Amino acid sequence: MYNMDAYLKSLTSNAVKLSKKVQDGIAENTREFRFENQAHFLETNEDKMREIRQNLDSRYEKEKLDGLKRLIAMISKGRDVSEFFPDVVKNVASNSLEVRKLVYIYILRYAEQEQDLALLSINTFQKDLSDKNQLIRAMALRVMSGIRVPVISPIVILGIKKCVTDLSPYVRKIAAHAIPKCYQLDPAQKDALLDIITTMLGDNSTFTIGSVLMAFNQVCPDRLDMIHPQFRKLCKMLVDMDEWGQITALDLLLRYSRTQFLNPQGRSAAPVTRPVKKTKPVAKSFYSDDDSDVSHHSSDSEDSSEDENHAVDPDLAFLLKCALPLLQSRNSQVVLSVAKLYSHLAPAEDAYKIGRPLVRLLRTHREIQYVVLSNIVAIASQRPYVFDPFYQHFFVRSTDPVFIRNLKLEILTLIATEGNITFVLRELQEYVKSSNKDFVTQAIQAIGRCASNIPEMAESCLGGLLQLSYSKSEPVVAESVVAIRRLLQQRPQDAVVMITQLTKALDEITEPLARANMFWLVGQFCSQLPLVAPDVLRKAAKSFCSESESSKLQILTLGGKLVAQDGTSSKTINLLFQYVLNMARYDLSYNVRDRARFLKGLVYGQQKAGQENVELDSSENENGLLDSNNNDSSELESESLQGGGFEYSDKELNLSEHVRKILLSEKEAPIQENPSHGREQYMVGSMSLVLNRSVSGYEPLPDWPTVQPDPSVRRMAATMEAPGYMNDRTGFGSDSVYAQSRQQNSSSSSNSNTAGSRTYDGQSGAYRGAQTLDKFLESSEEETDSSEEDSEEEDSDEEEADSDEEEESSEEESEEDGDEDDEEEEEEEASSSEEEAILPAKSTRSNGRR
Amino acid sequence: MIESLFVLSPTGKVIIEKHWHELIPRRVVDYFNDQVTKSMAAGEDVTREDVLPILSSPTYQLINIYRDGLTYLSPVTKEVDPMMVFEFLHRIPDIMQEYFGQVSETIIKENFVTVYQLLDEMMDDGYPLTTEPNALKEIVPAPNILNKVVNTLGATTSVSTKKMPSGMSNLPWRKAGVKYTRNEILFDIVEEMDAIVDSTGKAVSCEAHGTIQANSRLSGMPDLTLAFVNPRLVDDCSFHPSVRFNKWEADKVLSFVPPDGHFRLMSYRVNLPSQQNLPIQVKPSINIGANGGKFDISVSLRNSSGNPVENVVLTLPLHKSTSSLTAHCNVGQYMFDPVGKVLRWDVGKIVQRERAPVISGSFGFVAGSSDTVSNAGYNIGVEFLIHSHSLSGLKVAKLKLFNESYEPYKAVRTMTKAGRYQVRA
Fold first, then answer.
1. How confident is the model over A803-844, as pLDDT tens digits?
2. Which of A215, A837, B168, B170 has its Cβ near the most Cβ atoms within 10 Å?
3. Do B288 and B418 sit in the same domain of this protein?
4. Among partner residues A371, A698, A739, which is closest to B83 by beta-carbon distance?
C-alpha cells in the first residue's frame, strides 16, 4: 500500500513537473508566435538596444535569432549598429544555420569598420570550407571573400584555390565570384588570380563558366589571349549558360571578336545602304542547317575576297550562329546582348534577324521598353530596314508614357518607307488630335521629317501639313507652317503652289511664329510670285503695328527682298517698303529699328563703314528669330558666308550692286536632325546610348583590326584537357551536345558525328581546330562516364613531358577516326608543331593548379 | 555592376536598403525624390509613370523602376547595361510575388528578414547570382504555414539544419528530390489581344500576345515534350530557360525539364489578320462643341466563337477641363471619376442575341477653356475576357513524359483577354 502511495506521489510530482515544462515551453513559444510577423523588428528604441545585446548573449537560439533579426532590420533601415560587432561575432560558430546566415549578413556589412574583430571569424570560415554540405562551403567562401580586410587576402586566395577544385559547380561558381572581390581587396595578388582564372576557364560546367567570365572581365579584361583556346568552347556553351552568364559571355565574345577578326563588311563598305532583298535567302542557307555552316569556309581569304558574303571568318560565323537561339531568351538583356553582337559584328544582311525579337520586348515593362526603343532608334538610324516591317508596333497608344511615345515617333520617321508611309502618315495625323501640346508638336515635326526622308512622299506630306495649317489650334498651325517652310526649302519646285495656298489663309493665322515664317517664305520666293508677294507686303504693311517682333523683322526683310528683286522700278513696292521702314523706325524694339536702318542702307545704297558687322548681326537676328528650333543653323551660316564672300577689302565696292545677291541668294535647306541624333555612335545596349552622352566608365568597342590576326591560336582548344571535376555537365535539361545525345537515341547522335566529320572533312588549316573540338567534346563526354579515366588524366597532366606526348598521340588518334588523305596529314604535322609552340602556356597553367 | 538597391514606399521613404558593393549614402534618395517631384510638376498630365527610368545626379545614374506603387531605385556610378539593371530590378518583385503572394510596403515590412536574405542571395558583389525561384527556395525557405508551425512548436535548430539541402540539383531552375503523391501538370494558355481600332471600326494594328503559364507538381526529374497542333502560327516567341532551343528550331516542340511550381513556359506573338478577329465591336460617336460634348458608345459582339464575352469594361478618359458629366446606360453601371476625369463603364457579360449595350450622355467643359479642347481626340480603353477561346487558334496536341515512370494528370485551359486594346473616337 505504501508502495502504491509512494508510486502515486512520484507520478503526480512527475506530472506536475511535466505540465510545468510544457507550460513553459508553450509560453515561450506563444511569445514566438506573436513574433512571426517580422514587422515589429523594425521598431527599435534605446531600451531595445540593451535587449538586443542580451538576446545575442542568450543561450537560446530563438533569442539570438530575435536579436539578429532586429539588427538586420536596423541595417536595412540604414542605421549604424556596428557597436554590436563583438556580440555578433561570438555567434559565428553557432550550430544553427539560421543564426549563422544572419551573422554572416551582419559581418559582411561591418567587417570593414571592425577589421580586427572580423579576423576572429576567419577560423570558422576556413573550417567550413571543408564542410560536407556544398551550401555551407559556398557560404563560407562568400563571406570570407566579402570581408574587406586586406590582411586576409592570402587566406582568401587559398580558399578560392581550394574551392576551384570542388566537385560542386555551385561552390566553383562562388569561387569565381570571389576572384574579383579578392582582386579589389589586394591588386598585388593579380598574378595568382590570373592563374586561377586560367584554370577555371577550362571548366566545362555551364553553371560555373558565366561567373568565370565575369571574373575575367573584372580582373584582366585585356588578356584576350587567354580566351583563344576557349573561344569555340565558349560559343558552344553559350546556349546552356544561365542567363546572366550569357550576358557576360556575349560581352566578352563581342570584344574578343572585334580584335581577332576582320570586318565582314569589308573595309570600305558602308552599312547604311539597304541590302538587296535577295540576300536574305543567301543568308538563311548560310545558317539554316548545321552541316553547311562551315562549308562556305575557305582556308585562305584570297578567293573569298571576291564575294563579301563569304568573307566572314568561320569562327565569327560560328559565334553568330551560336548566339542566334538566345534571341528567344526570356531575359531582355540577353536578347539585347545578342542584338549588340549582331549590330557590331554581323554582316549587314544578317542584321534583320534582330528586328523581330527586339520588337517583342516592347510588350514588357515600361522601363525595358524605354531601353529597347532607345536602342532601336540607334540601330534604325543605321539600318532602318531591320525594323520597317514592324512599323505598326511603333504606333503610339494614348496610355504610353511621354518618353516612350517620343521615341516611337522618332522610330516611325526613321523607318518610314514608300511602302508604309501612307499608314505612318495617317497615324501621325491622328496624333495631332492629342490634347498634349508637346506631343502634337512632335508629331508635326515627325511628319516633316518623313517628307524630307522620302522625297516621293513629300507631296502628300505637304498636303497633310497644309491641311493642318488651317487647324483651329494655334500651336498646330505654327508648327505646321514651320514644317512646311523647312520642306519648301528642300523642294523649291513645290513652293509656288504651296505658298499661294498658304497666303490665302494669312488673315486667319494669328500665331506670330507662323506669320513670321510665311513672310520669310514669300520673300524668299518672291521672284516666282510676282502677283502674290506684293499683295502680302501690302497686307503686312497694313497690320505692321499689331505684328509681333519676329513678324516685323520678317516683313522688313520681305520688303527689302521685293525691292531688291524689282529694283526700284515698281513704285508701289517702293512706297510700301518705305512706309514699313518708317513704321519700323519708331518701333519700340531696337532690333526692328536696327534691321530697318540696315535694310534701308543696303537697298538704297548708302555706303558706310562697318557694314559687315551690321550685316552679320542682322542675319543672325533674322535666323535666330525665324525658327523656334535651332535646327536651322546651317541657314545662318550659309547666309553670312555668302555675305562674307565679297571682297570688302575693295573700299570702292558699292554694296547695292550686289543687293540681289545678298538678299535673294539661295538659302541652303536646313538639315533636319532627329531629336536623338548621335546615339548611334555608342555601343548598342550601353547606358551612354540611352542617355546620349558618354557616361563615366564607358569604353567604346575596339576598332576592327586592319591586318588579320593569326586564326590558328584558337585551334589550341583541341589540346585542352579539363580536369575531371570540371566535366560534370550541368546542361542535362538543355541544348548541349551531351543533352542531345541523352535525349535522342544512339542512332541520331552518331548521325551528328558523321555530319561533323563530313563537313569538317577536306577543310585545311583553320578548320581542323573546330573538328578536333567536336571530337574533344565527344571524348570528354565519355570521360565523364568513367571517373577513373579522369584521375589518370589528371595525373598525366601534372607530368609535363608525358602530357605532351599523350596529347599528341590522342590528337593523332582522333585524326584517324575521320577519313583523311595524305595532304591533311601533312598539315596535321604542321599544326602539332604549332601546338608545341603554345604548350609552355599550358604548362604554367598546370603549375598554377598545383 | 549593380551596387545598391533602395526600395521606396509610395511616399518616397526608404523601406529597405541593400548594398552589394560599397555603401551609397542615403541622401541620394532625397535627391531622387526631388527629381521625381520636379519632373512631375512639369505638366498637369504628367504622372509618376512619365518620369524617366534613368535620372542623373552629379555622381550617380539613378536607375529606377516603378511597380505597384513601389520604387526600386538603384544608383550606379559607372557605365552598365541599363537593361540588365532593369531586368534584375523587375526580378525582385517577381520573386517576392512568388514568395509572399503579393508585393506591398506592408508585405515587405512583415517579411523583411526573408527579403533581406533573398536580396543577399540574388546578387553577389554587384553581379546576379541566383535568381531562379526554385534554387532560391533551397537556400532561403519561403514562409509557409508548415515552417511557421515547425518554428513555433519548439523544434528549432536541429530541424533547420536538417532542412538544409545537401545536394543542389544540376538544373538551376529545378529542385532536387521533389516528391508528390499526385502528379499533375496544368497549363494555362492566356492570350492577350493588342489592338488599335480607328473610329470606323477598322483595326490599325492588331496582334495576339500569348503566354503559356504552367503549374508543375511532378516528382523526380521529369522530362516533358509538349507538341502543338499548329505551331507554325507562332510568329515570334521566347522561352523559359528550361526549354531546349534547338528542339524548337528543329521540330517545333517544347522539350523541357520543368521547374517545380508556377512558371511561364513560353511567351509568343501571333500576327492577326486585321478585320474578322475583333471579338467585340465598339462604336463610339463623340460630338464636341465649344462648351461641352455629347457621346454615344455602343458595344456589340463580333467574333468570339459562340462564347460569352465577360468582364467588359470601357474607360473613356476625358479632357482635363471637363467639369460635369451625365450619362445613361442600358446595361451595367457607369462611374465618373471627377478627379482623374475618367468615365468607366462596367458592362459585365455580353451574350449573343441580347440587345447591344449602349451608353449615351453629355459632358461640359469648364468655362473659358481654350480651343484645343474641342479638337482633341478621344481614346477608349477596352477590357474583356473570353473563357476557352484562343484568338490565334493555337492548340496543344500532346504532352509526353520521359525519364519518370508515372503517368501524370494533364490539363490545358485557354483564355483570351484584352491587352492593350484601344478604340479611337
1. 444 444 444 444 444 444 444 444 444 444 444 443 344 333
2. A215
3. no
4. A371
The three-state secondary structure class of A265 is coil
Q: Do A105 and B237 touch (CB under 8 A)?
A: no
| CA angle (B363 as vertex; B360, B365 as ends), nearest 5 | 165
pLDDT the model gives residue B213: 93
Contact state of B237 with A328 under an 8 Å Cβ cutoff: yes
Grid coordinates 536541429 are at which residue? B158
Do A36 and B151 make contact, defined as CB atoms within 8 angstroms?
A: yes
B114 close contact with A: CB closer than 8 A: yes
Please indicate, yes or no, whether residues A421 and A486 belong to a single structural domain of this protein: yes
Is the domain of A481 the same as that of A537? Answer: no
Q: Which of B61, B151, B167 sits opposite A32 (nearest CB)?
A: B151
What amino acid is encoded at B74 in this protein? Answer: S
> A728 with A665, same domain?
no
Q: What is the mean pLDDT of chain A?
A: 72
Q: Do A76 and B171 touch (CB under 8 A)?
A: no
The answer to whether the Cβ–Cβ distance between B164 and A101 falls below 8 Å is no
Tell me whether residues B110 and A211 touch, CB distance under 8 A: no
Which amino acid, residue A208?
T
Number of structural domains chain A divides into: 4
Residue that is last in its domain, among A488, A510, A532: A510
> Does the pLDDT value for residue A283 go beyond 80?
no
Domain count along chain B: 3
Classified as helix, coil or strand, A3 is: helix
Strands B236-239 and B253-256: unpaired
- What is the per-residue pLDDT for A496? 81
Where does a domain end: B145, B163, B192? B145
Among the ranges A274-283, A512-521, A526-535, A597-606, which has the highest mean pLDDT value?
Answer: A512-521
Residue A332 in grid coordinates: 531582355
Cβ-nearest to A733 among B89, B166, B171: B171
Q: Check whether residue A480 and residue A564 sit in a common domain.
A: no
Hey, are the CB atoms on B269 and A401 less than 8 Å from each other?
A: no
Q: Which domain holds residue B376?
A: 280-387
Q: For position B321, which CATH number holds?
A: 2.60.40.1170
Q: CA of A71: which chain B residue's CA is closest?
A: B113
Q: Which of residues A791 and A467 earns the better pLDDT score? A: A467
> Which chain B residue shows the shortest CA-CA distance from A110?
B23
Same domain membership, residue A656 and residue A527: yes
Residue with cell 579539363: A722
* B354 to chain A, closest Cα gap in Å: 31
Whether B50 and B106 map to the same domain: the answer is yes
The residue among B36, B67, B81, B382 with the most chain A CBs within 10 A of its CB, best to mutate, is B81
Indicate whether A214 belongs to any domain: no
Which residues 265-324 of A have a C-beta within 8 angstroms of B?
A: none
Tell me the residues of chain B between 302 and 331 that have a Cβ less than 8 Å away from chain A.
Answer: 317, 319-320
Nearest CA in chain B to A99: B157
Predicted interface score ipTM higher than 0.90: yes
Establish if A110 touches chain B: CB-CB under 8 angstroms. Answer: no
Q: Do the beta carbons of residue A177 and residue B129 sit within 8 Å?
A: yes
CATH number at residue B88: 3.30.450.60
In terms of DSSP bridges, do strands B123-124 and B4-8 run parallel, antiparallel, or are they unpaired? unpaired
Is the domain of B263 the same as that of B396? yes
Query: Mean pLDDT over residues A69-77, rounded?
Result: 83
Best CA proximity match to A294, nearest among A339, A235, A243: A235
Cα diameter, chain A: 150
Q: Which residues of chain B fall short of a pLDDT of 70? A: 144-170, 274-277, 303-304, 368-376
Instruction: Identify whether residues A437 and A463 lie together within a single domain.
Output: yes
Residue A436 touches partner B, C-beta closer than 8 Å: yes
In a domain, B122, yes or no: yes
Domain around A610: 515-675
Q: Is the pLDDT of residue A265 over 80?
A: no
Q: Which among A39, A170, A733 has CB closest to B109?
A: A39
pLDDT (mean) for A8-37: 58
Same domain for A726 and A813?
A: yes
Round to whole Å and give the CA distance between A455 and B415.
Answer: 47
B56-79 in b/e form (b: 16+ CB < 10 A) is eeeebbbbbbbbeebbbbbbbbeb
Q: In this predicted structure, which of A88-92, A772-776, B179-183, B313-317 has the lowest mean pLDDT? A: A772-776
Shared domain for A564 and A647, answered yes or no, is yes
